[in-house]
Amino acid sequence: MTRILIKGGKVVNDDCTQDADVYIENGIIQQVGKELMIPGGAKVIDASGKLVLPGGIDTSVHLEESFMNATTADDFYSGTKAALAGGTTMVIGHVLPEKNESLLEAYEKYRLAADAKTCCDYALHVGVTWWGPKVRAEMEKLVREEGVNSFQMFMAYKDMFMLRDSELFQALQHCKDIGAIARVHAENGELVAEGAKETLELGITGPEGIEISRPEELEAEATHRAITIGNRANCPVYLVNVSSMGAGDVVATAKMQGKVVHAETTTAHSVLNGMQYYHQDWCYAAAHVTVPPLRLDPSTPNYLMSLLGNDTLNVVSSDHRPFTIKQKAMGKDDFTKIPHGLPGIQDRMSVIWEKGVIGGKMDENRFVAVTSSNAAKIYNLYPRKGRIIPGADADIVVWDPEGSKTISVDNQVQGGDINLYEGLRCHGVPLVTISRGHLVYESGMFTCAEGSGKFCPMRTFPDYLYKKMVQRAKSQAVKPVEREPYTGEVVAVANSGKRDLGSLDLDTPSRPSTRHGGVRDLHESSFSLSGAQIDDKVPKRSSARILAPPGGRSSGIWSS
């Protein structure tokens, strides 16, 4: 039995901050308040002058994953250990089946590897990388029997993961029916493929090609399309890896229109810009290759951080997918072969505190919302996770807002041989991390065991997404008009063997009608530059002498 008392700190939730002590027993928060009655034998942690935060939830990590012919530099143990060092107590990983591979088999393989190694709580998204009756049935089984409640669809990665619009529509409809969260990676996959081909034909093979071939308008267009398809399917849409101002504006507009859409960006997209791709050092430039790419406009990160601050963007993840420089070098002669992915599982919370809170974009409550509470609400884990209240899981971070550290690859726990934030001094650091009531990290020392993490089954139909959807379906239900049936005559249609054109929309007039109500459109001139004119065959009348021009003869200085 582990008993811990966190004494003298400020407890920060997403909606309030209060001076309070926190008592933990058997992995659960038992009491929050002042002058608590505590049984003997509790370990006391002095949090005077410190903040006591809900443990971070990182909603997108790729651990022990094979992708683009490379395996990530972090396995489940090293990756989750790095998460704990950064103040994150739960991660959500990705199962990405190959095309035509069973979703269920891919999931079981992933679970087998993860259960033996993780040292913090975790859950899983499953990728819908192809579509068919088998996928539909397996999605239902994963939801009903395996505790999965989110699926990720891709509008990019043509011939690999990409779904066509009709398939995406059916997948979103099915997500709605089974109460799952529909995560969508929005980029125009067809035009991305064409852009990559054109860029290579121009002789551009370096990392800058990723930014040139995937302009932000392709993300903005696909974001609008994903929201539209979700709206038609009556399914809440959760957009991932929002990377540009254009896509951010589309999300903001959709929210203002009352559409049920939520969105996630990444630490890298909200802090770094795409000038990195034009660095003279190929290794440095290649280390930043991800999709969607970091954006060239230097004001983009500041803009995305502002959108996190005002709730246009709801969540910030690390999208941790670390590769070594040797692995990135598979694309040394062709940028399309550089594995996509950036590290960041360890640095996410400190970097967002530095750029978001210290940078004046959000307060400590909003910081808790974007790093923990909103994720817990969206994935139906709240208030068991993402909040410090009696009865919640004891996933807690003691945060020093005055402390500082300089990020460096030399002292990182996460894998990979480069750190994107090298040399960045962060004010705001985790001192103590408690996971499920166990003290697992304190002042640089780990006390977590490999395999001590637990899989968290996630329930379907989260209120945060679906409550509004249910009400909207009731209020906007489409009904037929009740009227007396037509009893008059109906013209008989002779079967002439001609194809039935169905809708009038399919009838194409031989000449488009003008908008001038039958009056001739003067823009439709019959004048021809060929020399032959439409009136050449009309007999010409004999000439007539004009005695005076219309309006009479001119006078004054022009008179003769």
Automatic annotation (TrEMBL):
Residues 501-560 are annotated as: Disordered. Residues 51-440 form the Amidohydrolase-related domain. It comes from the Eukaryota. One of its GO terms (molecular function) is hydrolase activity, acting on carbon-nitrogen (but not peptide) bonds, in cyclic amides. One of its GO terms (cellular component) is cytosol. Gene3D superfamilies: Metal-dependent hydrolases (3.20.20.140), Urease, subunit C, domain 1 (2.30.40.10). InterPro entries: Amidohydro-rel, Hydantoinase/dihydroPyrase, Metal-dep_hydrolase_composite, Metal_Hydrolase, Metallo-dep_Hydrolases_sf. Belongs to the metallo-dependent hydrolases superfamily. Hydantoinase/dihydropyrimidinase family. This is Dihydropyrimidinase like 5a. The lineage of its organism: Eukaryota, Metazoa, Chordata, Craniata, Vertebrata. The gene is dpysl5a.
